[in-house]
């Protein structure tokens, strides 16, 4: 058990993060804050924050208990955030949920003004810089990767992912953070000095930022739907083959095959299915010969066609036509 005096010493231990030149937030006289931290009382001495009308700076450094540690950041404006995860891991509730780990810089934004974060147990240390929305157009003009920030709606009504990009923490970035230790708290000049420091940070982060890669699973799902659409539009073409489809999708044959794994049909199996359905439709209301239909639908021979048709629909082509055109009850296999 820690006695009350020891606990008091722990709680009043001097903050030693990069923003250690800042006094505790409740001792700083500022205009109405655009940034509110919802955090438990025991952790009040484990973070520092500062703001002006353009930016918010926030740092948290603490060894947490054996339970995940949730807290919220509430703002009065939308912000583009640069999160430098120095130690520990956790998650941020954006779309989709952003799981963060140490040694990485993340750039993200969120349309809602209350940001829920959760830190994993253990040592945690992160530095967070928020850039107010009225600066976004100017940033986007200078850094092309930021051109889509704030454009939440797509043509199909779905939201864009809110992670703009990420990059590893480099030595130059650590040097920039270390330079903050030479700052002094001066109520008039501090905002100007921090804003100038931001420019250095922007160049170090935004020029190295890499757009998030789509998960492999999402990529294959998208490819599958694009490929099936293409096949539906072109299955009547005799020369249609796997290589032709892959070239049209601008992917390798192997990747195209992967997108059809665990699906009902293979690539050419789907082509064959559409051609069999077309043949069935022709049989329904025509007197075309079986050989003619097999030729029109690009089967190698009438015998091959008849064998595949019977396997798919339960009756051979002639039997099927007699059943349908003779109004005989018939159900094909699904």
UniProtKB/TrEMBL annotation:
Which superkingdom? Bacteria
Pfam families in UniProt = HTH_18
Q: Which UniProt keywords apply?
A: DNA-binding, Transcription, Transcription regulation
Segments forming domain HTH araC/xylS-type: 225-323
**Could you tell me which SMART domains the record lists for this protein?**
HTH_ARAC
InterPro entries linked to this entry: Homeodomain-like_sf, HTH_AraC, Tscrpt_reg_AraC-type_HTH
PANTHER family with a match to the protein in the record: ARAC-FAMILY TRANSCRIPTIONAL REGULATOR (PTHR43280), HTH-TYPE TRANSCRIPTIONAL REGULATOR EXSA (PTHR43280:SF2)
Q: What is this protein called?
A: Helix-turn-helix transcriptional regulator
